[in-house]
Amino acid sequence: MKIVMIQDKFFDPSRVDDIYFDRGLYFGDGVYEVLRSYKGKIFALDDHLARFERSMKEISILGLDINKVRERVEGAFAKAAIPDAKIYFHVTRGSGPRGHSWDDEMKPNFFLTVSELDDSSEIKEKGVAVSLYPDLRWKRCDIKSLNLLANVLANQDAVKKGCFEAILVNDDGYITEGSSSAFFSINDGKLITTPLAKNILPSITRKYVLKAAKTIGLEVIEKLLRPEEVKAFEETFIGVTTRDIVPVVEFDGVTIGNGMVGKLTKSFIDTFEIFTS
Ligand code: PLP
């Protein structure tokens, strides 16, 4: 390599930090996790570590021991001393000259942050509006990959429309999930959500929402829905680790129910609170 330029400056290639040659930057060649704590306790750590380990295995990142990851997460969380924290971490395949294939000897790069969580109390009380966006993603959305361009574009479109989240609609006209959340509807006393397959992320929140449905005594139906069906439903909500359950009161410009947080959605929020306390 002869030239490296960063912004307007030239650098001696041998003196440029390896992180600039990270395959995460070049290709999104890595996987990540987001978890959170409630009142000083990390929630569902084993679930997140299991998903992370699977994501790594699915893309053949084999040089990072999951026990080491657990140690780093717990160590960083203790050091940050934030009771309600958001913990983000990712691993990339490593750093090297840009080339699509990789060398198995490559050493993975690990990155982690701990920060304060955004306050969710207002959106939980009032609910949010969501918009629709085509699901432009690849065919392995079950892997929590760093490639999030389609999700980023969808969410930006939602924000531009004054919405909190974009609900993704596949080429056949069915809802898959949110740009960064799982999607749920309630109708006729039943909870309906997308079945787990390669086209959605196995959301940890989803797992606990299904557990909550059992506690509440609500039947769960896993099936694909079209946006038009959802518009006539009684309640809808999204689920994501950083905020657990967020009621949706407006769906693609249509008011859901009476425009207030539904009774059953509130039961899910309350039940989740029991799981996390
Ligand atoms: N679906 C997508 C595409 C996501 O990015 C996320 C979270 O970031 C979720 C669903 C929710 O997953 P979890 O409940 O594990 O946070």
- List each distinct ligand once: pyridoxal-5'-phosphate
Average pLDDT rating: 98
Coarse morphology: globular
Low-confidence stretches: none
Work out the radius of gyration.
Answer: 20 Å
- Helical residue percent band: 25-40%
* SSE topology string: EEHEEHHEEHEHEEEEHEHEEEH
Annotated CATH homologous superfamily of the largest domain:
D-amino Acid Aminotransferase, subunit A, domain 2
Number of strands: 15
CATH architecture of the largest domain: Alpha-Beta Barrel
SS strand fraction = 25-35%
Number of domains: 2
Any overview of this molecule?
This protein is α+β, with helices and mostly antiparallel strands and 277 residues long. The protein folds into two domains: 9-116, D-amino Acid Aminotransferase, Chain A, domain 1 (2-Layer Sandwich); 121-276, D-amino Acid Aminotransferase, Chain A, domain 2 (Alpha-Beta Barrel). Helix content is 30%, strand content 29%. It contains eight helices and 15 strands. It has helices spanning 23-27, 45-58, 66-80, 121-126, 149-160, 204-216, 227-231, 263-276; strands at residues 4-6, 9-11, 30-38, 41-42, 85-92, 109-116, 128-134, 165-169, 175-178, 182-187, 190-193, 219-222, 235-240, 244-251, 254-255. Strands 7, 8, 9, 10, 11, 12, 13, 14 and 15 form a nine-stranded mixed beta sheet that branches. Helix 6 (204-216) packs across helix 8 (263-276). The relative contact order is 0.13. The structure holds pyridoxal-5'-phosphate. Pyridoxal-5'-phosphate (PLP) binds at residues 34, 151, 177, 180-182, 201, 203-206, 239-241.
